[in-house]
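Reviewers asked in the last cycle whether our approach scales beyond single polypeptides. To address this, we selected a multi-component target totalling 927 residues and predicted its structure end to end. The input consisted of the following lines:
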Amino acid sequence: MLALIGRRLFVAVPLVVVASFLCFALVASSGDPLEALRLNPRTPPAVIAKRSSELHLDQPIVVRYSSWLRDALHGDLGTDNNGSSVSAQLSRALPVTLRLVLVAEIVAVLIGVALGVVSATKQYSWFDLGTTAFSFVAFALPVFWLAAVFKDLGIRINRAVGHRLFFTVQQQSPGLQGSTWHRFADTLGHLVLPALTLIVVNIATYSRFQRASMLDVQTADYVRTARGKGLSEARVTVRHAMRNALIPVTTLVALDFGQLLGGAVLTERVFQWKGMGTLLVTAVTKRDVNLMQAWLVVIAVTVVVFNLVADVMYGVLDPRTRRG
Amino acid sequence: MTLLQRAPRSTALLIASLLTIAACGSSAKNGTATTAQPAATTAAASSSSAAGPASTTTTASSSSAVTTAAPSAGNSGGSAIFTVDTEPTGLNYNNADDNSAQGSYLMQHVWPWAYVVDPTGVFVLNTDLLTKVEVTKSDPQTIVYTLNPKAVWSDGTPIGIDDFKYSWIAQNGAPAKNADGTDKKDDKGNPVPLYNAAATNGYEDVKSVESTDGGTTITVVFNKPYADWQAMFGPVIPFEAFKAEGGGDEVKGFNEGFKKDKINLANVVSGAAYKMSEYKVGQSATLVRNDKWWGAPAKLEKIIVPFIADPQTPDALANGEADVIYPQAQLDLVQKVKGESNVAAQVGFGTFWEHLDFNQTNPILADVNVRKAIAKAIDRSDIVTKVIKPFDAKAQVLDNRMYFPGSAGYVDNGGDYAKADLVEAKRLLDAAGWKPGTDGILAKGGKKLSLRLVWYKVANKRRESTAQLVQNQLKQIGIDIQAAGNDNGGFLSAGDFDIALFGWTGGSVLSANTSIFADDGGQNYGKNKDPKIRQLFDQANVELDATKRTALMNQIDVLVWNDMAQLPIAQVPELLAWNNRISGPQYDAYQGPTWNEPFWTAK
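The resulting structure, written as structure tokens, was:
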């Protein structure tokens, strides 16, 4: 296991460094972060010159990147173009996305796997056809459109019942006051629609993968042996077939989670959750290299970690891989 | 135990975990959430046009105060949710880094203004802060501000000379000093300003700010006259609070203080109707009535300001998560808002105006007759009808670059360009030596009359539509236009365009136009060279007589028309909408939507 981790890190570290430099260079050369100041006729030229100097805009990109890397290795992610702490912004954004993604992933995995298993065991049944149709429709739907539809539905339901069950913006009502239960209900009300958006899309993916994987293992010799030994179908399915069929889905979920943590950008934008996705959009639109780099480092580390997790899970689920 | 037997237990455990995850992040908050549902009443949509910039007055005595706007219907108390589309990067919007309209909306009734511009474009004295203001001398220009003796910050400190002096020093652009007293300079020899001021207009011309008459008045003496003086001291910033924010260093307090991620509410003192009671980074700010406020109490107890991007505000309004919204007016958004049954909306035409700039470094456009021909061929009425009028039928072509329709200074200087004239356009081009080629495109000396039209911000549909219309219109006279958007505004200063389509914000500080139109102006992107324009600005910017100043500004506008350096198109529409639970919001192009916030009421 340690050897596995070591091998992964040996590849991952230089990969992250190269990716961070490319990202830095792209963002730094995409435009002028002081554009808004320059386009304002009232901004004194001396102030623009001062800010330009403070942001080191006159230095070559390689020099600027080296400064950033040196500081980052000491744990200092610097400030954004407006002087606000990048670390503070990151520490606010990450839990927001984590909350959304965790809930969405857990629910999507459970439902998706269950649908996939049942679809495979009842192949070509009405249930299977229905699940397949749902998956293809869900694949085809743009996430932002789905989000907008759910928002509209939520508003209609609220009006119908005369009470605001669903919220369309932010993670929590601003200026919230009240009992713990009231605050909890408010948070849940804000979570439902964005989580549902991610859940629908991911259920489609996980159910298809699980179905395909299940169909593959169902014809395996060991499954036939288990049936031949007189085990119940439920036991054969769950204890023998599903366990092996989960391996590809595990990889997918691990990779998906790492990717989603980078920010379910469209979902966060539509629902105005100030998570990693919003941070990314802010960094790009404001050409803020420090903010962009911080986002990248977090995501790169997340992807590496979850790749590792996937590999470890492989070993847990399939003892044969442990020897490798 | 079978799977089915284990399932309920597993399921219960899982649901509990999910609910725990979902609950993470919720925390106790002060303040009351607005939970009222919008009532199902018929829409009351109205629209109004913004007036133009104020004509400045020579004497400033006024008995009308910003806080005496007509009270609206509804009871006192309650709260309202007013959204801003972007979180300010900091509360000190006088700092260049944190200069934003959103910051000014948030702080408008926290840090007091000497004058407020009302919806008709007139400067109105804030008599809660200053009982009288007089221009006592014109040479040197001397203004005496009489303090309201009741004016105090919410920490009990009287508002006075320290605050006015600090507001001046922080924005006068003075350079930082080295230890030996010399001006500090950067590597390129540029002076390094001490304060990071967003603008220095006016303050840089002030010689002194002194306490007079035993501290009851403040006398401001100018080195040279400044005509837009009423726009100064908007806001007056609290010296002691800024000093405390900087840990005893008021310079640090200005340059680095009040950033969004380290708001210390103890230093966010108020000298107006509201004070800030809460700031949740990334989420919202909350304003409550200032209990030290000596003027008429604000009607609403609380204003909650969440940071919600414009496209999502109509849904928030429909769902009762917002009461007042002020998004950028995109057509689908306006239609969506107006389609709601319990919403009132105003579409106004603000101080932001769209125009086409001609790059005279291009040899083709260096010829004034070519520029005039292009201007004559462009049917601005058609553009306004197709692009702007869908927002509101009152949209009209803009024929003045200094003033807006409805203001006292506005004169229609468009004259010959009021209507498109293709015949005259072709004649001008023909006289300039441009003849039609076999493909119908004009050519001269083997060179085609092909120009690049670049609009700022690719996603701006309004500009894209305008560009397409211009392209089609100019094709009729044989000009080939290659149109494209550019998200990098640097193309303007780099001169990487032939014709640029973008906007400027006009308003109450007319002297700011110098930078745009004077031949040495930093924002004169088209590089129009007309020394007369600079001469007229030098006169207008020190002319304290409003009538004379208006005449000078209009002379400048006429010169720009004669030079055809730039073709104005129209003011950009703006949308203010609120649900019918709230009364009082009124569109004000100059001061923003929160100008009369203390008078909003809730049913």
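Chain A touches chain B through 75 residues (CB under 8 Å). We regard this as preliminary and will revisit it once experimental data from Aim 1 are available.
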